[in-house]
Structures are given as structure tokens and as C-alpha cells.
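Exam prep: given the inputs below (a chain plus adenosine-5'-diphosphate), describe the expected output before reading on.
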Amino acid sequence: MAVERTLSIIKPDATRRSLTGQINARFEAAGLRIVAQRRLRLMRPQAERFYRVHAERSFFGELCESMCAGPVVVQVLEGENAIKRNRELMGATNPANAAPGTIRKDFGESIEANSVHGSDSSENAREEIGYFFAEIDIVG
Ligand code: ADP
Ligand code: MG
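Solution:
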């Protein structure tokens, strides 16, 4: 197994409900270390850039709007198989379909307000981490 890094975002629906600590506790309990973290508010062009792979999807406008609706916490998680492990902790995109005990099942409000983002491949992880963090910000 390889130690990996992945980008996680605690979305506005979750920061609004003060769930950052509870979500972070799940990462740490699962062996994912939070090696960089910043709270910020995305502007619309930044959200559009981050989610540009979804630009043609019908939900793109609502997705970008919801990501700008309040503060987000962007973070780098590090650990064995961090990308896949984080996706397992997150659960399915639609909270209604997510397995019991996952973050989205327990905290997600809807498919739009599903509390967390996580990179889905090593290539995307590298790119997404680089969008928010410089190497000097990441302290392993
Ligand atoms: P994931 O976040 O699980 O990787 P995607 O990358 O497919 O899912 O989609 C990005 C985000 O867009 C999702 O987390 C969700 O908030 C939103 N989304 C995805 N599919 C839909 C949909 N059919 N309707 C509304 N929002 C959606
Ligand atoms: Mg995705």
C-alpha cells in the first residue's frame, strides 16, 4: 500500500451546521492525517474553475452556487490509500444512496448539499491539491 494525499473540502452546508470537527474526527479515526487545512470562501469563478469537468452538466450552476453559499474548509488528507479511503468514508454522492456510517449518509442533506468533496483519482488529487495549496503549506 502507498501513502497518498487527497484533497478534501468540507462544503458550505456542513460548515453552516458546525460539522467541521465531527467530520475531521472521522478522518483522523480512520488514519487520515490532516496535513494542511484552510477555511475560505470561494468566489464564483473559483468554484467554476474547480468543478470545470462538470461544466456541461445540468446541475453545474447550482453546484457552483452552493459551493459559494458559505465558508468551506479545504484540506489535504494523507495516509495509506488516502484517495480511496476518503471516498469510502464519504459515501455515495447522493446521501440517500450512501452506506450507513458514511459522512454523506450521516450529515448530507441532499445530493447538492452532501457535505464533503474528495478527489477521485491520483491525477485529480495532485491537481486539486495544487489549486489550493503550495508545497510549503503541507506539513506531513
Ligand atoms: P462526487 O462529489 O461524489 O465525486 P461528482 O463529482 O459526480 O460527485 O459531482 C460533484 C458534485 O456535484 C457532487 O458532490 C454533488 O454535490 C453535485 N452533483 C452530482 N450529481 C448531481 C445531480 N444529479 N444533481 C445535483 N447535483 C449533483
Ligand atoms: Mg467528483
